[in-house]
Amino acid sequence: MTSSRPAVVLLSGGLDSATVLAIAKREGFSPFALSFRYGQRHAIELAAAERIARQQGVERHVTLDIDLRQFGGSALTAEIAVPKGESVEQIGEGIPVTYVPARNTVFLSFALAYAETLGTGHIFIGVNALDYSGYPDCRPEFIEAYERMANLATKAAVEGTQPVKIHAPLLHLTKAQIIRRGLDLGVDYSLTSSCYDPGNDGAACGHCDSCLLRQKGFAENGMKDPIRYRA
Amino acid sequence: MTSSRPAVVLLSGGLDSATVLAIAKREGFSPFALSFRYGQRHAIELAAAERIARQQGVERHVTLDIDLRQFGGSALTAEIAVPKGESVEQIGEGIPVTYVPARNTVFLSFALAYAETLGTGHIFIGVNALDYSGYPDCRPEFIEAYERMANLATKAAVEGTQPVKIHAPLLHLTKAQIIRRGLDLGVDYSLTSSCYDPGNDGAACGHCDSCLLRQKGFAENGMKDPIRYRA
After folding, report:
1. What is the reported pTM?
2. Which residues of B are less than 8 Å from A135 in CB distance?
3. Are A182 and A26 in contact (CB under 8 A)?
4. What's the CA gap between B217 and A151, in Å, rounded?
């Protein structure tokens, strides 16, 4: 274990990426956290990302401004109602309206650029193919294809000095397993924000797909989610 | 040939992308041009992109702000001297310092997001693997891997409604052939800007890789490059 291997860690401020940051550190990487202000309605998650980066400790935390709103097309950036329910069984089939076009592709591409300038090929992302909302860019085959493409894209990879490795350590974990792993690593989940439709005070709605999944994950660990929910 | 098929066309303002835009139109696509203000020193190319879009006619022209300067690492965005020479024989081996980390990956990813919101999978890019500067993300194997990844990344591609097709019609053409094709399609190359180090008045330096390649291309067509060069 060395402390001098840099890695770019995509940090949304949610439960998953907070766990991934802790895993990257445990694996001996020096994390450079990368967040995006992309016109999301839930900008509260960026404040959460800053809290998490500060609390866990990172080499640097960069928040990039990119305006996906110019393209429209998703509940998270446009004025479409976020679907709500009472339990995970009510999460719809197929790809939900909260899908942001090509979001993980865009985020990974910036991570790739950042990694190359840092002289590393290591990128961490908190995608998860089990307890998730059905986004295509969270599946293992997407991550594999991205890594393959990335190894043809950069000077460092092509010259063989920095092969690109997309680390997706949560890919095959349930939400309950992710939380268990994070608790073992000392992640403070009270700092995280996952809600697609939080109040102005940051309190989570408790009924969007994301809230339902994390509540179930904590319940399966015999715990109560430590974040605040709207009354 | 139908005029209602939208396509995203990456438009840098250079000779290659101006030609690609004309090709997309000739193939019956309704072009949505996409440019980037990414901290490049040669912002003059954005003015060229606007001129080209206006002259050729597009459905819409979007210029996105993305700040790759936060990552550093290239002559085009940082304060590193652009290499100069007297002929294309002096263009160095390997990948030059003008390389921008993961640039085409980032640009294609935004094009992918834009295409999906437009309800199309068609993306045009002016990469060229012959008379180019040795960038890894201009090679056919990169474009193929990107297309494969993209077809796993978006809702529209995964649901089968909009498979992604990366059109790279210049990939196997020499610069002279590109110019010949563009002239046949009526491209006004006096509007384009390719120089890595233009003067404040927009005049090209005449000695960077990009200037040398285009001058040779026009010469091989028995013509003089119509843009202005510094005395």
Report:
1. 0.89
2. 155
3. no
4. 31
